[in-house]
Structure formats: C-alpha cells, structure tokens
Design a protein that fits this description.
mainly alpha, 34 helices, 58% helix, globular
Length: 727
Amino acid sequence: RHDGDDPYLVVAADKGTATFSDIANAISAEYGFWLGDAFASGGSAGYDHKQMGITARGAWESVKRHFRALGTDIASTDFTVVGIGDMSGDVFGNGTLLSQRIKLVGAFDHRHVFLDPDPDPAASFAERERLFRLPGSSWADYDPALISTGGSVFKRTAKAIALSPEIRAALGVEEESLTPNEVMRAILRAPVDLLWNGGIGTYVKAGEERHAEVGDKANDGIRVDAAELRCRVVAEGGNLGFTQRARIEYALRGGRIFMDAIDNSAGVDCSDHEVNIKILLNAIVADGDLTEKQRNALLVEMTDDVGALVLRDNYEQAQALSRSAAMAASMLEVHERYIRNLEQAGVLNRELESLPSDEVLGERRAAGGGLTMPEFAILLSHTKIALANELLESDLPEDPYFAGKLERYFPAVLRERFAAQLAGHPLRREIIASRVANDLVNYAGTTFAFRLGDETGAGADEIARAYTAARETFGLSALWAEIEALDGIVPSESQIAMLLRSRVLLERATRWLLRKRHRPLDVAAAIGRFAPGATTLAEALPTLLGPSDLEAAQAQRAELAAAGVPSRLADRVSQLEALVPSLDLVEIAAATRLDVVPVGEVYFMLGTRLELHWLRERIVALPRDTRWEAMARAALRDDVYSEQAALTAAVFRAPAGDRPARELIESWLAENQGAIERSLHVLADIRAGGTFDLARLSVAVREIRNLIHSSGSPEPAAVPTPSRASS
C-alpha cells in the first residue's frame, strides 16, 4: 500500500475516457462510496464540459487578456490564427467558435492538414460551426468552396504537399512543396496573431532541449523550437503543448504566454464545483428534502451560474499574472528571494519547475529584465496551494466573517434555498481556505504574504485577516470592479497601473493593522472601527490636501483622464496615496473625541508647513536595487508618515474646543518656533545641496523626529518596515 486513508477520491476523464463518467459512478455506487455520482464529474447527471465549452472559454480569458495588453481589440478587429486540433474536438472546436473575427489560416490534427490562406471570417465561422455540430467530423468535411484561393485540406499520409503562392505567403515560407510534417512545422511557425493549441501532444520545445527529453516521440517530426515561433500570442487549451522551458524561451523573446495549467484550468475548476455542489445536494437528497429528479433539474438550472463562477477565476488569475509582469524588473530581487524561500521550504523544486538559477537571474537583472509570465504562473500556483494549506491549519475557516467565502463559491440559488445545509458542508473549511488564498494572491500579489510575514512575523491567517480588513475598510473590492469594468475601453496598462496604485494603499494598511492591532484581528470590528472614518476622509480629501499633495493627485488624475478613465474613478484612484495615513487619523480622532475631518486638516496642514511632501518625494526617489536599500528607503518613508501622525496628535494636546485647524496649527507653531526653524533650516541646507542620498535624508527625518520631542509628544510607535507593494 502506497497511500494513506483519504476522506474522498475524485477521478477525472483523460484521453479516450471522456464518456466513462457514468461507468465510474456506477462502480462508486456499487461499492457504497459516499460521494455517489460526485465520484466522476460529468456523466448523465453532471456538467458536460464540451457542451458548456468551459475549458475553451476559460482559455479564451487568457486570449482576451493578452490581446488587450497588445492594444488589439479582438471583438472588433479580424485576427489571424493557426491551431492544433479539429472542429470535432472540445477545446479546439469550442475555442474557434468564440469569435467571429477569427481568420483561421491553418490547422492540423492526427488525420489532416487544413490550409486557408485568406479566409472570410463570417463564412469560415459558419462552416466551423457546421463541422462542430456534425458528429465525427474532420477537416475533410470542410466545404472546399469556402476555402480561399490557394488553400485546401491535405491528408497527413501524403508524400508531399504542393504549396500555392497564397499558402507560402500566409505561412511565411518560400518552398513550393513540403512534406506534411514540414507543413505542420510551418503552421506552428506561421507569422500570425494567435497560436491556439486544442490538441494532444507536445509541439514546441526550447532550443537547448532534445526531442528525447520531451517524452512525446510521436510528435518528434513536427516539434519546433520556441525561438522559431512568429505568433504574437499563445493559448494552451490543451495540456503539455509546450515544454515549460519552451514557454519561458518564447516569453523572453517577447511572446505572450501563460501556461497550460492557467489557460485550461476551467475544466478542472468546473469539475471541482460540480463535486462540491453534488456533495451538498446528495446530503439534502438523503435527508429527504430533495428528490434525485429535483436535484438533477437544479444542476441543469445552475449550468450558466457555475460557468460564470469558473470563468471569473480564469479572469482574475490572468489579470494577476499581467500585474506581476508589470513589476517583473523592479521586483526581481524580491522574486529571487521568494523562489529561494519556497525552495528551502520544500514547496517547489527550482530545476523541476524550470525556474531560473541565481546566475540566470543575475543576467536578467543586468539586462533590466525579470521573470516571465510562465515563471510567474508557477509561483502563483505554488503560492496559492501553500497559502491555502497554512490557512487550513489555522482557525481562520471558523471565523464567522469568512463564511461569505463559502457562500459565494456556490451559485446564488443554493445560497438562497439551502443556506443552513451549506453552512455544514463537509468541505467547508477547505473551500474557505482555498477561496481566501485565491483572493489574496490574485489581488495582493504572489509575494504579499511572504513579505508581510517576513517583516512582521505574522502567520498566514493573521495576514489574511488584516488584508481582508484593509480591503474592505477602503472599499477596494468595489474599486477593483470599477477598474475591471473598463476592459476594452481604456488601455490595459492604465488598468494595471490603477490596480497597482490601489495595492500600495492595501499593503500599507495591512501592515499597519498587523503592527498596531491586537492579534488575531477581529475583522468585522476593525472594518467597523476604521471604514466610516476612512470613507469620510476620502470624501473630504480635495479640501484637505496641501498644494504639493493636491498637485501630485491632479497630475495622476490628468494622466488617467487622458487614458479615458471616467472622471469619478480617476479622482478616486489619484487620491489613493493620500489615504495612507487614514488609519492613524481615525485613531487620533478617537483618542481626542473629535471628528476625523479636522484631524485630517491639521495633518495635511502640518505636512505643508513642514515640507514633508517634498521630503517623502526625495525618499521615494532613493535607489532600491537591493533588499537592504528597499527596506531602508521604505522604513524612512514610513517614519515620515508615523512622525507626521505623532505631530498631529501633539497639536491636539491643547484643548481644541471649536477652534479651526489653522488656528490650532498656528498656536502649535508659535509654541515650538525654535525647533521648527532649526528643522526647516536643515531641510533647506539639504535641498540646496542638490544631493539626496540616504544619509542626508535620514538626518532630515531625524530633525522631524526631534520636533516630536521638543513639543513634548511621546515617541511614535514602531513603524513596520515595508517593501514595495508588488506582486
């Protein structure tokens, strides 16, 4: 015996067994296995992946993401495609019916080679649709009258294929005749927009890999090197179409690709949903509250809802990888440390996962590069698994606040009809842990929990609680939804930039909560304490910001507006950085029993009078090429925030009464005139010198700290040492 006891086992179809689910479930029933027909997903009372087109639709989320990043709107622009597969196949067939703008130039399966050098998008779409619905179709069934001049369908058994001038132009080859294998290699190397892999086999390797290393001898004669590809985008609806090293090689040359486990995850995700839904409903049937016939009808009724839940996962995951790529070069040092950490913890094997060695990372750093999206895909996957396991070992799944994660995993009709039974789902803890991990990694980044754990000593569950409280305190979920609603309306890079700006606030607020609130954090209580004040400050910000802060926000707003971002959203995103001190200000307001707005007014006035915005700008401009530089820079920056908050509290030590903020400031300035003049003199000297290194700026921050002592205020609490908000 090689495996221990498990509470359940789920089997999934593989090549040639897609229709065997009912057989497997019959065996499950015969043995009295508690999962019943949740043992093998699909079948006569399950979700038919081909009918739903779910795997292809999931991969298409990657396609849309890649083309948005390239500035191409494939909903309104024709684009050229080559592919692996035929219209009878689930992934290839469904995938090539997801857009009427596709110009399918060439494709092949195990029987035929299809070439259509200049297809009419509408006519070819209709013909592909006909073939998809034709039982047992092949490329040989394609209407020859609909193939453009010079194209045809050829058997792979032919000795040679004559290439028309049109085919040669479409494939970018000069030869007038090639063997079928050579034609298939030419299809893979064609200068097109998209390579859509919906087939079985490994067709692309890295240049340094030998065919024998790939382990797919049947396709040795067709396989090409990644460096030979001329397509702009690759989508892997099928498994193992590329070796991982091939993906990386292609990405390093500018190609856009994730990996098969990302692109085709919707099929597995759909099966997961089906199994978990059936576990719930089978228990309800056993209790007599639902008949099997009613259960089956309900499963059918929920098909679209399940599909939407699954595709949302694909959308978020592709977006997360795009954000990681945007920070690849600037965050390389952090990513290198993280890879090393995962390797030392036994979470991954760097060589097995084809992750770069320290030497290779050094070369990329010297060239101004970073990790590729296929490499980020590996890190993202391992991070989610490791984080979910850590959360599962904690008491977070029992926290009532996270019950909503369980509910939102299931279609709305189940939440409405079977709320009580849902709360007792046998896999309740596992679902909550995986959904919390998924959300955190997708929106806060792959290294978020690693960095915050390193900086604060907090465990995964504590970080997840603080992240959740920070996200909801500032209404970031709603903000992200607004940004995502701009897909295809504003440039992708503008959306990514807005999401990254929100992440700065998210990370600093999370760190603040980890440092300054009692653990384990009561998430609901923290949101209740801080969200009202944070919302009030956000609404009042335009009237509170000093000239420098306002100018910076207006510059960001103008940049976003120029990209087509709606005015209200541009306003909000441009002011996110100014909300960083919100949690401190809410605490000061509570301690002084004042409204948060006058506290904010004093805070920002102090910043203006003491030139703290200028000081923060100089600190942010410090180099951060190494871990230690980044930590020193971040600590210095946050010292300024902490000391500005402490000075604000000092101003309110005297009874405020009904005095306006300006009067309070003037009174405090007069009381501390000597110390303030000395600090401003030091700042002026540094400014005049024109050199703003760590040593000089540390002196400047020390002068601000001296003001706290001079005014009789207590030393501010220790400030967390953050690194950059990133992926």
